[in-house]
Amino acid sequence: MRAHDAYGSSRRQFELLVNRLDDSTAHQPHHAEDEFLLIIPMGADNELLAASTIEQVARRLSFSPEAINQIKTAVVEACINASEHSLSPDRKIYQRFRVEDDKLVITISSRGILPGNLNAEANEQAAGSSDDRRGWGLQLIRTLMDEVDFERVDEGTSLRMTKYLRK
Q1: 3 state DSSP class of 23
Q2: Per the confidence metrics, is the pTM higher than 0.90?
Q3: How far apart are the first and last CA of the chain?
Q4: Fewest CB within a 10 Å sphere: which of 6, 29, 88, 125?
Q5: Using N-to-C axis directions, what is the helix angle for 47-60 and 65-85, rounded to 10°?
């Protein structure tokens, strides 16, 4: 109890305190070792650094070699999209690789905004209604990953990709 600066006057209070401390630690969904943050400058093939990092994380989780290649390809494509389409003033890509139970959640963000027509281009490509080569990157990412969510956030744009571990 001294370690938590707590004092008790009865065994019942002690038991309540222990239960409360156990409950507070049980609700912490992630530990520091379950999350990796990486910030890379846009350009100069820096997306390969991100691919190398995520490869090591995926290996620790025992993803299959095929799944690792899919994850790496999706990360590279997301970084290229952020570099090409983001109007980011700081020219940086923010990445979070988070391990959750049976999945790996990857968030690729930039502080800039994406042009409004990027989603329209991706939807046209998915439907096969345009000869333009733009927008295939998002479609490729959707094919490679199990879940893909794109959103505009206050500080810019964010692409969250999830890959489930299948043993």
Answers
A1: helix
A2: no
A3: 42
A4: 29
A5: 150
Give residues with Cβ within 8 angstroms of 39, minimum separation 6.
92, 93, 94, 95
Task: Sketch out the chain's domains with CATH numbers.
Answer: 1-29 (no CATH), 31-164 (3.30.565.10)
**Would you state the pLDDT for residue 44?**
86
Contact 100, 163 (CB under 8 A): no
Length, in residues, of the chain: 167
Element (H, E) at 87: none
* Tens-place pLDDT, residues 40-75: 999 888 999 999 999 999 998 999 999 999 999 999
Q: Return the amino acid letter for 113.
A: I
- Cβ atoms of 73 and 90 within 8 Å: the answer is no
- Tell me how far CA of residue 154 lies from CA of 16, 20, 39, 78, in angstroms: 41, 36, 18, 19
pLDDT digits (tens, 9 = 90+) for 101-114: 889 999 999 887 65
CA distance 97 to 162: 10
The whole-angstrom distance between residue 26's C-alpha and the CA centroid of its chain comes to: 23
